[in-house]
Design a protein that fits this description.
This protein is α+β, with helices and mostly antiparallel strands and about 350 residues long. About 30% of the residues lie in helices and about 25% in strands. It contains eleven helices and eleven strands. The protein starts with 5 loop residues before the first helix and ends in an 8-residue tail after the last helix.
């Protein structure tokens, strides 16, 4: 019986895209994986499926394989689905293959002339020994069936998971540990189920918004027992309306009283780096920025912390007598600045 080619094994067209190849492979894995399939030949079928996918997913191997399908020597037939030169009777077969023909194939695929993988025309190929197409092709791509299957399983890890993690500025300044819960798909005999998984995440000091934290092997499980994928968490900062982060620089709005803005002087401010004392310049205006160099996100090259002044008015006291005194003070200011007109 003629062997199916790799396209037929995966049930796809020879012009199938990479996505179509991957989709067909995953569908077959769910059907024939020995852990879920009741087919007595599931293991053998998975070997064929893995061999086919290992070859067709790789553009170079696929190109070599397509050349083999279209090679005119040894009864391959121009793109035919059977390989009569390899089936059952080995190279001898009904059409046979001369040493010259074999050398020509080897030269096309970068092999040495005169022998192939330690075999030649006198080593048993013409003596009726069975030698399947996958076995000869394995010599072109490196390794036999079992090695290809093992390499495929080792390389096809589970899918990576991408998600966000929200942290406050304090975590970036000092480092922290956070716990997150993810819903992870798990393959069972009854199909795919989702289970909650709690993971402890270490937030490194100095991490900036938009950077990713990679947690190895915390992604989705492999479809056939290889290692899990990875989990990638993109950092998002939680901050209130008085805080703003631009790259590694932090902007913090600081309220000051009118007399502090007019007379200037020292004030104490609570910041992500703790309490700091700064000097307010005389005649400061709302929007004036005070720069604290190197007090931003503490990365390898630290950002800066900018204190943006915001002049606020005090509220009137609840006490009637005190309230009247305050109103008189504002009337006095109104008289003194009678010639002042704000920009509107």
């Amino acid at each position: 019986m003629a062997e199916k080619n790799y396209y037929e094994i995966l049930g796809i067209d020879k012009k199938a895209s990479e996505d179509e190849i991957k989709k067909a492979y995953r569908k077959l894995v769910r059907q024939y994986h020995p852990d879920v399939s009741k087919d007595p030949n599931a293991d053998a079928k998975m070997g064929e499926i893995n061999n086919a996918y290992e070859t067709l997913k790789d553009s170079e191997k696929r190109a070599q394989y397509d050349m083999m399908l279209n090679n005119p020597f040894g009864g391959f037939g121009n793109g035919a689905n059977n390989f009569s030169g390899f089936a059952g009777g080995g190279f001898g077969g009904s059409q046979g293959m001369s040493q010259e023909d074999l050398d020509e194939i080897l030269r096309q695929f970068g092999g040495a002339g005169g022998s192939f993988g330690g075999f030649n025309q006198n080593s048993g190929f013409n003596r009726g020994n069975s030698f399947g197409f996958e076995d000869i092709f394995a010599n072109f791509t490196g390794g036999g069936r079992s090695q290809q299957r093992q390499n495929s399983q080792n390389s096809m890890k589970g899918d990576d998971i991408h998600s966000d993690i929200s942290v406050d500025l304090q975590a970036s300044y000092q480092g922290a540990t956070r716990k997150i819960t993810l819903s992870i798909p798990v393959q069972t005999m009854s199909g795919t189920q989702y289970q909650d998984k709690t993971i402890e995440v270490k937030i490194p000091k100095g991490i900036a918004e938009g950077q990713k934290i990679r947690l190895a092997k915390q992604g989705n499980p492999s479809a056939y027992g290889a290692k899990n994928g990875d989990l990638y968490l993109t950092v998002k900062f939680q901050h209130n309306e008085r805080e703003k982060v631009v790259g590694k620089d932090v902007f913090l709005t600081v309220d000051v009283a009118p007399w502090e803005a007019v007379f200037g002087g020292e004030i104490t401010v609570t910041t992500p780096v703790g309490k700091v004392t700064v000097n307010v310049p005389k005649n400061s205006r709302t929007g004036t920025k005070l720069r604290l160099k190197g007090k931003g996100i503490p990365a390898k090259t630290a950002g800066d912390l900018f204190l943006q002044l915001n002049i606020v008015l005090p509220t009137l006291a609840d006490d009637e007598h005190r309230s009247e005194e305050q109103l008189q003070a504002w009337r006095f200011l109104q008289d003194v600045y009678s010639d002042f007109t704000p920009n509107r």
